[in-house]
């Protein structure tokens, strides 16, 4: 659960240039199509750890503003994955559901434990960052995904944010 309304969370999802703030492993947002997050729009990012970097392209496959965003992440020789994000209003908060599934490449053969375990840790870190930014912006009154603050409270209700 993210303790901010879907409009605030959607503001962050629809600001492609801000993905580096909350998507774990993103070193740089290289470019964002001006019509992001419309279907077909692309977001190019550089991902990695230390000197091991890879350019990745995310393409919007489904966009239902303030409800659902599905991306296809293409990571060169590593293949592609589907990333589905769903926002469910819950009082003044948002139940944020994240689903990741390999589509092509070596990831399809490695899907399962231990890869899924590592991905779940990464997704948990990512969702904590997203919640922290959303709550901070809601408190600051920006709430539209364009502010940049952070706050000590992580913004996630215990046990409420789910990723798979």
At the fold tier of CATH, the topology name is: Alpha-D-Glucose-1,6-Bisphosphate, Chain A, domain 4
Mind summarizing the main beta sheet? Answer: 7 strands, mixed
| Alpha carbon gyration radius | 15 Å
- Low-confidence runs of at least 5 consecutive residues: 146-153, 158-164
End-to-end CA span: 15 Å
* CATH architect. name: 2-Layer Sandwich
DSSP strand tally: 7
Please identify which CATH superfamily we are dealing with: START domain
Number of domains: 1
Structural class: alpha+beta
Provide the residue-averaged pLDDT. 87
Element pattern in H and E: HHEEEEEEHHE
Q: Can you give a write-up of this model?
A:
With 164 residues, the chain is α+β, with helices and mostly antiparallel strands. It has a single domain, classed as 2-Layer Sandwich (Alpha-D-Glucose-1,6-Bisphosphate, Chain A, domain 4), CATH 3.30.530.20. Helix content is 26%, strand content 37%. It has a 7-stranded mixed beta sheet with strand order 1-2-3-4-5-6-7. A hairpin with a 3-residue loop joins β3 and β4 (68-74). The longest helix is centred in the last third of the chain and has 26 residues, at 115-140. Residues 146-153 and 158-164 have low confidence and may be disordered.
Can you describe this structure in just a few lines?
By secondary structure, this protein is an alpha+beta fold.
Topology record:
Layout lengths: L5 H8 L5 H4 L3 E7 L9 E8 L2 E13 L3 E7 L5 E11 L2 E12 L2 H4 L4 H26 L21 E2 L1
Parallel strand pairs: 6-7
Antiparallel strand pairs: 1-2, 2-3, 3-4, 4-5, 5-6
Protein name: Polyketide cyclase
């Amino acid at each position: 659960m993210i303790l901010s309304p879907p409009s605030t969370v959607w503001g962050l999802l629809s600001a492609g240039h801000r993905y580096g703030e909350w998507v774990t492993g993103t070193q740089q947002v290289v470019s964002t199509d001006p019509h992001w997050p419309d279907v077909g729009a692309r977001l190019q990012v550089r991902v990695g750890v230390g000197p091991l970097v890879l350019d990745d392209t995310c393409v919007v496959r489904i966009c239902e503003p303030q409800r659902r965003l599905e991306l296809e992440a293409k990571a060169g020789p590593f293949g592609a994955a589907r990333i589905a994000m769903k926002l469910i209003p819950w009082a003044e908060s948002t139940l944020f559901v994240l689903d990741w599934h390999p589509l092509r490449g070596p990831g399809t053969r490695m899907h399962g434990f231990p890869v899924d375990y590592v991905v779940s840790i990464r997704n948990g870190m990512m969702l904590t960052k997203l919640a922290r930014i959303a709550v901070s912006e809601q408190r600051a009154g920006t709430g539209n995904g364009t502010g940049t603050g952070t706050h000590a409270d992580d913004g996630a209700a215990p046990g409420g944010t789910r990723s798979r």
